[in-house]
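REVIEWER CHECKLIST
Item 1: Sequence provided? yes
Item 2: Single chain? yes
Item 3: Sequence as submitted:
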Amino acid sequence: MDVDYFVVLSRAVAGKDAAARDKIYGDAHALLRRSRLSREAVAAHTAALEAAIGRIEDQLADDQSERAAEVQEVLSSGGSRAPLFAGIAALAAVVIAAGLGYYIYIATRGEGTGTVARVTTTSPKAARASEDAVVADLSPGTDGGSTGAGLPFALQRQVVFYRTTIVPGSIVIDRDNRFLYLIDANNSARRYGIGIAQECLKGGSFFKVTNKMEWPDWKAADKKDAGSLLASAGQPGSLLGARALLLDKPGLLIHGTNSPKTIGHLVASGCIRLVNDDVEDLYRRVSLDTRVVFVS
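Item 4: Structure as written out by the authors:
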């Protein structure tokens, strides 16, 4: 059976605030964790679910002001009918939530009934076609902030279900979906939204952390050469942000940024970037020789 998580979740979270949406997303993850699917099938469903959540939160962020105006117009033109509308909305929410559970329950029964549960989702590369233009950085010295509070929900730091054979403590970088995972035990990971430079989209897959730097900055000579990095020379407006993890390949590094709004996009400088609060959190948790795995 096809499960289009984007369609199902869009209906389930319609009209919900952030806390209510988070609960619905959590319930969907819990249903998958309790399913009888194989590891590969759970991973596929989970990836599709995460992609759908990311698309939904992006759309909600873009449409929030427009929807607010429409709601205000409806309420002002029919104030006496507002309680009726509220009752209808509540009933619809119950029906939609039940439908979400039914869809996932039927999908996850596929393995036990001899049928194949298929996932219908847009290819990550296709979904990102409109986002592949390089997003410009703020000017050096301009501090755009340190947090991911203004980013879509999916790109904010959070602990997620992540089944993998990679050793806990390792870093996994998902180039296409713009996520960095710090692998924990018990099939979970700490996930961070990232921006990625064009030259870091390709190349090898297995590296390790060879150096850690606080408030790094480029020497004027060469901003593409990791060997030209200076420690403790930066400031909040630095293009490389608050921290950097250097890998065992020239030019390959994980770092902060002075431009939080570039997270989730292709970027003009550096390599793998996180908002400063996130890169500081990662820096504290990672030691030298940590394994770094790039996936596409």
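Item 5: Key structural point noted by reviewer: Residues 39-77 form the longest helix (39 residues).
Item 6: Recommendation: ____
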